[in-house]
Amino acid sequence: MRRSRSPSPPRRMDRRSRSPSPAVGEVLSARDFRERILQGDNPKRDEAAGDVPAPEPEISEEEQMRAMLGFAGFDTTKGKAVEENLRGPALGTSNTKSKREYRQFMNKRSSFVKPKPPPMMG
């Protein structure tokens, strides 16, 4: 006997609200929008101030990315001592790699119950 298929649930048409399209003059490219955010420009404030353009500082693209993402640089901290990890709440939580110590289990005369040898100093 064949099972009948249950009907699929009704589709909801209100998943995405329709927003009105911006006017032709209001369309900003992503680059313009990003530059306005980095420079701290407010479009409403610009309209109130008139047509007095603010002097634009020459900022390199790397410095703009630093300001937008909120960190000091693109250098890695791998293998370096980070000041925040040396004191404070993150003390000792950094991932530091230590040299592995191997024990010989194969081809040895004694049993497996022998204690681990003390670490060599120096």
Automatic annotation (TrEMBL):
The U4/U6.U5 small nuclear ribonucleoprotein 27kDa protein domain, residue ranges: 61-115
Transmembrane segments: none
Bias kind Basic and acidic residues: ranges: 29-48
Protein location: Nucleus
Keyword Nucleus assigned: yes
Pfam families: SNRNP27
Highest taxon listed in the record's lineage: Eukaryota
GO BP annotation list: mRNA processing; RNA splicing
Keyword vocabulary terms for this entry: mRNA processing, mRNA splicing, Nucleus
GO cellular component terms, semicolon-separated: precatalytic spliceosome
Family: Belongs to the SNUT3 family.
Quaternary structure, from the entry: Part of a tri-snRNP complex.
Protein name per the record: Aste57867_3045 protein
Species per Swiss-Prot/TrEMBL record: Aphanomyces stellatus
Taxonomic lineage: Eukaryota, Sar, Stramenopiles, Oomycota, Saprolegniomycetes
